[in-house]
Design a protein that fits this description.
By secondary structure, the chain is of the alpha+beta class. It contains seven helices and eight strands.
Length: 214
C-alpha cells in the first residue's frame, strides 16, 4: 500500500445523514475550541468538502454548532493551514484544543478512536518503511518486500477487527476503506453485507462492492 493511498484513505469520509422524521429537528452538537497558536479563523466542512460554517477566533476561542449524530464526520480546518481535524459529532458538547502540535479532543470517544486508528496505521507504515529502506539499499529486495507484506497483513487483520466493532459509524468506514483491494472478493462482500447504512452510503466502499457484484 503506497503512501498516497494511505493518506487519501485517512482524509476520505462520506457523510451519512441520520434519519429525520417530519416535524422533528436534529439534536445539536456544540464544538467549543481553544486556540493556543496564531490563528484567527476556522472553517467547518463536511467530508464532501462543502463548508458548513466559519468562525472567527476571539480571545483564543471559537464555537461551532452542527447536527449531533454518530454516523457522520465534520472537519475543522484552520484558515491558511494545511492541518485538518475530523470529528464525529456524537455528543452534546465536544472540546477541542488546537495548537502547534496535534490537536486534542475531549468529549467524543468515537473521535478519539478514529484518531487512534489513523495514528496506528501511519505508525505501521512508517515503521515498516524504516525497516525496509536499508534492505532495499543493500539490494535485499525480497527481504524488504517481506517486511512490507507483513505490515500489510497486520494492517488488514487489525482493520477487520476494528470494522466489525464499528459497523454503524465512520470508524468502520475508515477501517473498511483499507480493506478495498486488500482482501478477497468473497471476504469483502461478506464484510460489506454486515455493515450498516454508514458503510453502505460511502461512495468508494459502495462503488467497489457494486464492481464486485455486477
Amino acid at each position: 500500500m503506497n503512501r498516497n493511498k494511505i493518506l487519501l484513505a485517512l482524509l476520505s469520509f462520506a457523510i451519512a445523514l441520520p434519519f429525520k422524521m417530519a416535524g422533528q429537528s436534529n439534536p445539536k452538537c456544540t464544538i467549543k475550541g481553544t486556540v493556543t497558536s496564531q490563528l484567527d479563523y476556522v472553517w467547518l466542512y463536511d467530508m464532501n468538502g462543502t463548508p458548513i460554517d466559519s468562525c472567527a477566533v476571539q480571545n483564543g476561542t471559537f464555537t461551532f454548532i452542527c447536527d449531533r449524530n454518530t454516523t457522520s464526520v465534520v472537519t475543522i480546518m484552520p484558515k491558511g493551514k494545511p492541518s485538518r481535524l475530523p470529528l464525529i459529532p456524537e455528543a452534546k458538547e465536544i472540546f477541542v484544543t488546537i495548537g502547534d502540535g496535534p490537536a486534542t479532543v475531549t468529549g467524543s470517544p468515537l473521535t478519539n478512536e478514529l484518531q487512534e486508528l489513523q495514528q496506528w496505521i501511519m505508525k505501521q507504515y512508517n515503521d515498516a518503511n524504516e525497516k525496509a529502506g536499508p534492505l532495499r539499499q543493500a539490494g535485499m529486495h525480497e527481504e524488504a518486500q517481506a517486511v512490507m507484506d507483513e505490515m500489510q497483513k497486520t494492517l488488514v487483520d487489525h482493520c477487520k477487527e476494528v470494522y466489525l466493532k464499528h459497523l454503524q459509524d465512520p470508524i468502520g468506514v475508515q477501517a473498511m476503506g483499507f480493506l478495498i483491494n486488500a482482501v478477497s472478493k468473497e471476504e469483502f462482500i461478506d464484510l460489506y453485507k454486515k455493515g450498516g447504512d454508514c458503510i453502505h452510503n460511502d461512495a468508494d466502499i459502495a462503488g467497489y462492492y457494486e464492481s464486485l457484484t455486477m
